[in-house]
Protein: DUF4262 domain-containing protein
Amino acid sequence: MTDLVRTSCACLIHREKRTGDPEVDDVVRQVLSRCWTIVGNEPQAWFCTVGQWHNFTSPEFVICGLPRREGRDALRGAVIAMEYDLPKLGEVDTELTSLRIKTVRVHESWSGSPLLRTARAFYCGRLPEYRQLIWAEAAEGFPGDEGFDEELVERQPNLAIPRPDHPECAWTALP
Ligand SMILES: [Zn+2]
Structure:
């Protein structure tokens, strides 16, 4: 890793700072001890990686709408797949987990969302690239596919859509 790459990470570790926020400082400890970690909110059903950019200059991942175990399994699968430049942006992957997953780039307008609050704090307000793993409903396919059940739409957002343009839902209204 070059110095140029190193200086491009704005995180608390590179800046040798702490926030005093126990949750964020705990993430710092986890990244220091095992390179990357997963933060999330179980009731709200979202999880994201922190530390991939800091340690490997790899994109970070986020997944929404799945229970803890499935969500974290999918993130781990994506991190392992990054070694092979997978999952490809915009493509559907069936190998990552038992789910079909489509990977999209999170639009920067979501950087203010509570979804990325801890990550934002870790990266001192300068979020690296985040990619969302959008999962397919077994028989229904992906949100937005023809014939997709409208009642399932709110189970996960599409973070590739700029936040102001995203249909209002639980995800745009996260406290
Ligand atoms: Zn860093």
Summary: The pocket of zinc ion is lined by residues 9, 11, 13-14, 54 (CB under 6 Å). The chain has a mean pLDDT of 91. The helical segments are 3-7, 22-34, 52-56, 68-81, 117-122. Residues 3-165 form one domain.
